[in-house]
Amino acid sequence: MKDLSEDNSAHSLVGRARQVKEIHDFLATTHRGGALLLSGQAGVGKTALLDAAAEAAASAGTRVVRAAGVEFEADVSYSGLNQLLFPLAEFFGELDDAHSGALRVALGFDNGPPPDRLVVSSATMLLLRQVATDTRLLLVIDDLPWLDRASAGVLGFVARRLEGSRVGFLGAMRSGSHTLFNRVGLPEYEIPPLDGTASRELLDARFPDLAERVRDRILVAAEGNPLALLELPTALSGPQLVASEGLPSLLPLSQRLQALFVSRVSALPDASRGLLLLATLDGTGDLGLLQASAREAGYDGGIEALAPAEHDRLVHFDEGTRRLVFRHPLIRSAVVEACTTAQRRAAHRALAQVLLDQPERRAWHLGEACVEPDEDVATLLERAARLISARGNASGAVAALKRSADLSPRGADRARRLTEAAYIGADATGDLLGVSDLLAHARRADPDLVDSLHSAAAAVYLTINGGGDIDTAHHLLVSAIESGAHRYDAQDPALIEAFHLLLLLCFYGGRAELWPPFYAALARLRPEPPPLLSAAGKTFSDPARSGAAALEQLGPILDGLPHETDPARIVRIGTASLYVDRLADLRESSWRVVRQGRDGGPARRTLGALMHLCLGDYLSGRWDECEELAAEGLRLCEDSGYRFFTWYFWYCRAVVAAVRGDDGPADRLADRITRFATPRGVGTALHYARHVRTVAGIGRGDFEGAYQQAVAVSSPGTFASHVPHALWVAMDLVEAAVRTGRREEAAAHVRAMRDIDMAALSPRLALLAGGSAALCAEEDEDAIRLFDEALAVPGVERWPFDLARVRLAYGERLRRARANSDCRGPLSQANDAFTLLKARPWMERASKELRASGWTMPRTVTAERQVLTPQERQIAELAASGLSNKQIAERLYLSHRTIGAHLYQIFPKLGVSSRAALRDALADLDE
Three-state DSSP class for 75? Predict the structure, then answer.
């Protein structure tokens, strides 16, 4: 590959030997795929380095495609992706119909339903890999912070998955920018200012006749910024350059550079400025579009009028992509500043006239062209917002709705659009301060709309995330539903959204008296409630009494998950599945939502998916991953503003700490949940905290304390109305009651389990109900029969901790019945499970029972080579095949840290110390 240092065409590479080497080393590895971000202050030379890298790569036979973020297109979905992939359109036909169609619709080439972001991301990845089949491909993207959010999400997805792809990703952004790219941990290289020697060399090469004192002043003012070094002298007169006239007072660097660009743009002919404005507002650099819009604007000479700007090095034409490229982002800003508002509106109108086949972009330009309310344009923007929202670009949808509201002639329409923007913002983006402002503007526009469903729902999010109490939020939403003009139409999206939110509020409150308004309103829906809402209304409210009735309804909904693309619906299916133990069915879909969130998807949906993954991980024994995802959830709550949901993730960390015997952290987190929930009336959070204290108490043998915590959730002999978590502490209550001599209470609770048919809800709950019955059986023969029946329930292996607990109780009963040889089987199985889970108190209890039975644990070398769990075996085989931790993680929907933790445990089990020895060790196991 051509060495970048050989490029003598750009003075801006002076003094960049270290940076050139870094980029050259990166380019040399792009045959394996990879990504690198360049960052640095404005004008530091990022674009020059990108240009040199692109030229060097192209000269070596690499195909180079380029794009740049554009400030004025930041709210136009997929505009950046359009720039990048337009030169590759000829390859779209090599994709399957689904992926090709998704790309064509997303990029505005075809019409159709808005595609799912993940499908567009996958299609882009497949396209790039296809293009790179015969020759390496380099993506070069400048101004990453100005990419529209949808494009950034797709390209962030791509950039993280380039390993082994023959595709390189080289991007640039200003220092301090907060983009999806640096948040996902891509390698970043900071471009520093030039040092004093290099600054002088660059200045002397470009301006050799500068007077010494003028040179010194420029060097001080530029502070090593290459763009300032090259541009500041151009504003000086001839006499000033040779110091025969005094120099003007210098402004701060950013203002000075901006002023310089404005003066250069202003000096251009009118037609040149006009075309630069069209190119700036369009943002794609598409020459065909620029030519058409120039004719529409009355510039008969077309793009030929850009020659003066090209001669002045403000722009250049990329012959490879046939696009116009600005030489620096500040030039675009200068173009806008150099024109009048009337000129900007005229340019937007011209662009709108040539974008008839791209309704979203056309609506945006029409909106910017308007100076007075226009309902037709407002309606177009509202429709565009719906399309943008359906793609998962909540921020873009909010921006479009706000502009739509600005153009609404009627106060009622303006308020309606503002409240919808507020709701989308509250429900997805986490910009709660902005939501509050939107609601205030809506109230001023139409005071009668304060009880609208969107405004009420947005206000609910503000209330609960701002420290308000559940009862206030509940009253606010119930009032809006009961007073709305929706006529309980089950096809009204805003109404159904409000119902799902009310369902959550009732659940959070944890009190039966909150539910009647929900049930009453649900019964009035016509023609009938949507299936998912109906199912969740049974399984998430009072599953002990109504959950079983919804299982048949829930089945088809879960069957459709592989084809579900709406993150909100996936999270709501998880909500309906929680207390009937169907979270495992959502694992793949929930991970899809989380990955979308990491690539810029809606934070609120990401939190919901993380909650369900954490709870599913706890039940299924993936406790390390549970802790890791809970930590991610807590960070996201803090970063996004959804602080109400922190208690979920505190609980997940606390309950894992409790079962592992880490009493200090468990107690502190349970106390934190209690302090959070009590003043806010979050009764369910209090039940969750009591669950933590219950299992912690049983683990350390404090059965009296555990009993008191369990009965605070639900009294013995009954399942408290609308307290779903009573199902999770049912066996805890029975065991604590038996251990503290409260056999009547234990028996009463077992009868209550039978009365509600707890076993019908899920195999796990059937296991716990059967184990509870066995625990309080009077006769050993009855107890053994009941334990056998419980352990014979199909599928209970999916819940290893609960299974091990029942086996432990079985073994303890057998040992007390003096069946020492029979007890060792269930006790050994329980001990092995607790060991793998690192559930120390339970492991110690099982070991103690084994020793009491007369069994001695072997201490041979072969004992150290323990049998791997199925998941460990799968990870070991994938690692032995040569896959990296990251590749294994993506295949198994785990994090790379979890894979590393598993391998840390696998190596000593197999008696190896490296990946290279895994294959032989696994072969030995099979012999």
Answer: coil
Could you report the average pLDDT of every consecutive run of 10 residues in the chain (927 residues)?
47 80 88 89 87 91 91 82 92 91 89 85 94 93 90 92 91 82 83 91 89 80 82 78 59 50 85 94 90 91 89 84 77 83 95 92 94 95 86 79 95 93 82 81 82 88 92 95 92 95 98 97 97 98 96 96 90 98 96 86 90 98 96 91 95 98 96 97 98 97 96 97 98 97 97 97 98 96 96 96 97 88 92 94 93 67 54 83 77 72 79 74 71
Distance CA 96, CA 101 (A): 8
The enclosing H or E element of 170 equals strand 167-174
Instruction: Please provide residue 205's backbone torsions phi and psi, each rounded to the nearest 5 degrees.
Output: -65, -35
Give the residues across from 326 on adjacent strands. 315
For tokens 């595709």, the residue is 167
Token pair listed for 48: 């020059």
The tokens describing 253, both together, are 């660097």
Q: 66 pairs with which residues across the strands?
A: 140
The backbone torsions φ and ψ at residue 68, rounded to the nearest 5 degrees and listed phi first, read: -150, 140
The model's pTM: 0.72
Say how far apart CA 427 and CA 801 lie, in whole Å.
35
Q: What angle do CA 163, 166, 167 make, to 5 degrees?
A: 80
Please tell me whether residue 872 adopts helix, strand or coil conformation: helix
Cβ atoms of 34 and 171 within 8 Å: the answer is no
Task: Lay out the sheet containing 188-190: strands in order across.
Answer: 63-68, 137-142, 167-174, 34-40, 188-190
Nearest to 642 by CA among 368, 369, 429, 409: 429
